[in-house]
Amino acid sequence: KETKALAVNWDDELVKATALTKDGAGILVLSATNTYTGPTTITEGTIRLGAAGTTGALAPTSAITNNGSLVINRSNAAAQGTDFGTISGTGSLTQAGSGTTTLNAANTYSGTTTITGGTLSVSADSNLGTAPGSATPASLVINGGTLSASAGFTLNSNRGIALGTTGSTGGTIGVAAGTLSYSGVIADNGGTNLLTKTGAGTLTLSGSNSHTGGTNISGGILAITGSSGGGAGAISMTGGVRLELGAVTLTNAINLGANANALGTGQITAATGTATISGPVTITASAVAGGTFASSGANVLNVDGFITSPTTVVSVRLGNVNFGGGGNYTDLRTTGNVGLNANNGIATTAIMTVGASDSCIVDLKGFNQSLAGMIKGAQAASVVNGTAATTSTLTLANSANSNNEVILAGTGAGTLALTQAGSAVQTLSGVNTYTGATTVTSGTLAAGVASVANTSGAFGNNSAVVMADNATAILDITGFNTQIGSLTGGGATGGNVILGAATLTVGGNNTSPAAYAGAISGTGGLTKIGTGTQILTGANTYTGATNVNAGTLALVGGSQASPVTVSPGASLSFTLGASTSSTSTFNVTSGTIKITGTPTLPSYTLISASTGITGTPTLDAAIPGYVLKVVGNTLVLENPYEAWAAANGATGGKAADTDGDGFNNLMEFAFGTDPAVNSAGSIAYTGGAVTATGQPVLEEDGGIYYAVFGRRTDYAAAGLTYTVQFTAGLNQWTSSVTVPTVIATDGTIDAVRVPFPNFVGSPSGPKKPYFFRVMIAD
After folding, report:
1. So what's the pLDDT on residue 167?
2. Rounded-to-5 percentages of helix, strand, coil across the chain
3. Residue ranges of the domains in the chain?
4. pTM to 2 decimal places
5. Calpha distance 633→722 (Å, rounded)
């Protein structure tokens, strides 16, 4: 019996004893291999098995009743059933040596278990004695040593785990195989302490842990299913490991260190429900084999923290991963589905490779994303916007030429739009069906696939194309006939369209947007479809056919080099004061001409076509007092009277008689006479040609008398009305209802005649008429 707090080292074998009882507050060190088979009892103080060497043991059958402190302090392996028996009592157990001590019995001691060095290996919760009846902090203290699970089991949640002491020693939990599950609390035992996970197995933490030194995963899998499972501080990963998350939100910083590789698929994986990482993620590994992020099945991983990885590939191996925090990485590769949780949730510096080894979908989810480029891998891949009633814009800012075969799809509930903002050529070769706008702010956006009418194409399904007024902004469809919704933007600086030999079809979205002011070039053509209006104001040099099949093509100023044909039901539109010149032809046999603006001048030039205008143009809607005329190779809109008056010196208005011959200016205009010369002569014609204009004349032909007079060929468009009246005695006039017959023309004035009726009314009854007159009104 040792009554003083002394340490006694007994290094000889107890061979004659049948049992051992330790009394007193001191320490008894047993460093030999004892063979007595009776019980060992600690009623007070401490027994140490070993003195930091390779010896110090009891008989395998020597059960220990520990009501004090049992310390195992060996540098080599020690095992229950070989080096000591079962442990009971109220005392504590300490693993202190550098070796590994294995507990494999159903121990019933109830004191604290402390690991200050080496490894304490267990395979069941009962190996650690009787668990507390309620949550007990620091029931299991790991201070620099390792608690190792050689097999999977559930560690009682009432065994509160405390790490370290007042310093920052921390502790390690190793799982050799299977899953060690723990729902209790891991806390600091004073100080700031690190938890390290080792071993090839899985450690599942579902409690509210509060240790502050962070967590290091250097082996196997750490599964966190509680929102504070990672404690405070950074979670660091080295070697072939995985962080597996349940439906939790982690605010911890996460570091993927040197030689970090995924254990299986995805170094950080959502295993149950939706997991969110809101803290920053730093990747310093040279590569992450197996993928950086993943989720299993229908589970979702949200990565909402900023990702720092300037030299390492960031990858999504499988499942559903959403990004919301951006980053500075330059290479993102995915064979899983990717989504956004915020605008530019993916690093804007990234070139994204999608479908590298498996098909995938990128869902912008109502947010906008800018990328340094996008590349399709060997498998199918598409970009969508799955959020209804929103528009998501994908911006590609590539600095190197790229052929993008990713399908930009319109199959999502929302609208997908595209912006080209790079300095190089971005070729779209996917069968794209997106319907949002296509905007080119810089660089060249090129077609790599032909359009299928109203279905798909390089620039989606009837996408509205908007070109910046920038010398580097180019839309190039060389080699691929392309249909778009509309074309706007561009200007004197740039925003031009290159056709090559292809045809650009515009108007598929049936809208009437702002003008396109850039230049269209090439040997290809332009086709206008749809009910809307396409406005061109630039200096276009393309030489292929322009066909206005439907809707309206508005030519506002600018110049054309293409032969223009208007189909029935379609229209050309011109703006007054902004005439268009052309080095080609215009065929206006069909369709109509629309006019923008309110005319006030006598005449406006609409088109000057150096190689001719075919057909008789028709105004879409009449403009009172104005008509369309083809004058040589020019199409003009003119007020016939005002143009005539200006050309012939008629002054004072329509009621004035400029030359004093009794014909006012309106009559001179209507009959085609000269307002500056007395109009005493009569209209004359030879055969079908008018040879002189003048006053109406009476003519007899085959016994029938006719009233013959001059009438303007364009009288209807000029708003003129000619009324022929007959009388027997100049006291009662009767208007003729007979349609005049054209008998001759000079192209401006037609000679027309109306036969005298047999009888006309008079005050004394019907009589034969002897006089006629022609009344002019406008």
Report:
1. 67
2. 5, 45, 55
3. 1-130, 665-777
4. 0.86
5. 31
